[in-house]
Amino acid sequence: MTAAPILPERHEWTVDDLGDLPKPVPVEDALLAVEVVSPTSTFRDMYDKAKVYARAGVQSYWVVDPLQERVTLTEYALAAGGREYE
């Protein structure tokens, strides 16, 4: 099992705070992955990353979209015994 380093509890993070994490971050043992979309990452977060996380066996994948009038949360759940989301 590969584990990401434990980071101190904080209310706010920036990309610079994560500088020492392995690239790419291992996801094989994750139970949940969460992405917050930006104008340049919507398609990648909604489709491309969903395929990567599903193939890695991540049980649940959430995509938060703050770009619309109302913030939306889309949840993808891993199909039974599968490597794709329902």
Description:
The protein is an alpha+beta fold and 86 residues long. It has a domain at 25-77. 16% of the residues lie in helices and 20% in strands. The chain has one helix spanning 42-55, and strands spanning 32-36, 60-65, 72-77. The chain has a three-stranded mixed sheet, covered by helices on one side. Strand 2 and strand 3 form a beta hairpin. The longest helix is centred in the middle third of the chain and has 14 residues, at 42-55. The radius of gyration is 14 Å and the shape is globular. The two termini are 26 Å apart. The mean pLDDT is 77. Keywords: Endonuclease, Hydrolase, Nuclease. GO terms for molecular function: endonuclease activity. It comes from Micromonospora carbonacea. Residues 19-73 form the Putative restriction endonuclease domain. Pfam families: Uma2.
Mean pLDDT, rounded to whole units? 77
- Major sheet characteristics: 3 strands, mixed
Strand order of the largest sheet: 1-2-3
- State the separation between the terminal residues, measured CA to CA: 26 Å
The Cα radius of gyration reads 14 Å
Strand content: 15-25%
Topology as a string of helices (H) and strands (E): EHEE
Structural class: alpha+beta
- Tell me, briefly, the overall form: globular
Q: Counting H and I runs of at least 4 residues, what is the number of helices?
A: 1
Unreliable stretches? none
Number of strands: 3
GO molecular function: endonuclease activity
Organism: Micromonospora carbonacea
Keywords: Endonuclease, Hydrolase, Nuclease
Protein name: Putative restriction endonuclease
